[in-house]
Amino acid sequence: MNIVVTGAAGFLGSHLTKELLMKGNHVIGVDNLSTGKISNLDTCFESKNFSFIDYDVSDQRVIEVLENYKVKIHGIYHLASPASPKFYQSAPFETISINTDGTRNMLELAKRKAAKLVYASTSEAYGDPEQHPQSETYNGNVNTWGPRACYDEAKRLGEVYCYEYYSRFGVEVKVARIFNTYSAGLRNDDGRVISNFITQALMGADITVYGDGSQTRSFCYVDDNVRGLQLLMECAEATGQIINIGNPIEYQIIEVANLVLELTGSSSSITYHPLPEDDPKVRRPVIDKAINLLGWEPKVDLKDGLMHTIEAYRRNLIFQ
Known about the structure:
- It comes from Paenibacillus baekrokdamisoli.
- One of its GO terms (cellular component) is cytoplasm.
- InterPro entries: Epimerase_deHydtase (IPR001509), NAD(P)-bd_dom_sf (IPR036291), UXS-like (IPR044516).
- It is a single-pass type II membrane protein.
- This protein is an alpha/beta fold.
- It has two domains: 2-179 and 222-246 and 287-294, Rossmann fold (3-Layer(aba) Sandwich), CATH 3.40.50; 193-216 and 249-283 and 301-319, UDP-galactose 4-epimerase, domain 1, CATH 3.90.25.10.
- The chain is 39% helix and 17% strand.
- It has ten helices and 13 strands.
- α1 (11-22) packs across α7 (222-234), α4 (92-113) runs parallel beside α5 and α6 crosses α10.
- The N and C termini lie far apart (38 Å).
């Protein structure tokens, strides 16, 4: 099949692209390399089934660029967007544009090509939740007037575009609300908690915990996430649905910090810093829909996933 992956050079996009190529698909990767790294796709360029376009998906001309391939497009994974607060808060307008204009462009392409589309939304759509754990029916508690709003609200508006193209034009769209994802491929300067903790521990720097560490997250290893996205694309019953993709096991941030210290054998100290504005206090998905519709649930536990990630980070630090 011919598959378009936007954000192909990013963390999640590059993992998905490699998996799709391994299964014999033809993949057209699109990325403007604002936060993605072309080196993430090194092995993909070895495949005759891979094409890459350096382009901003929020530019409407991307539709024509992709139509010029003159091939049947079977599916579109729209993953393009900064995903770390470090990156989206430094580029708020670009983040808004890629999740609104970019989403509409990919939906329009899907409409013209009669293609299926999976939109990578986020657990940030729930904001700082007042309902715990979070099911897809919860409408969220998002602040529109704060530093995270450019990402949270843009993703939510992207979901609205998906709804309109599904209800008005019958586009086969599925929305994945993705919870915290990690693995060895997550850049060590990404700024998210797993990359921060492991990099700091391996370098012997202080482990920076924001708040008192009692806030919680649910961490999903990238292999599980990629498998969930593919099942979502393939599931006809999921058309027009929003589905949580994440690990339902919840950890306090201080637990994760101590586990990273244990697994790395680091002598780093833990330091505490003020909690960033609008930082969610709890986060855990209800995944009943994913289990019942997709037959999906995560398989990799946090300890095993962290061990894989730590070893890869350690190798990278040695060769830097």
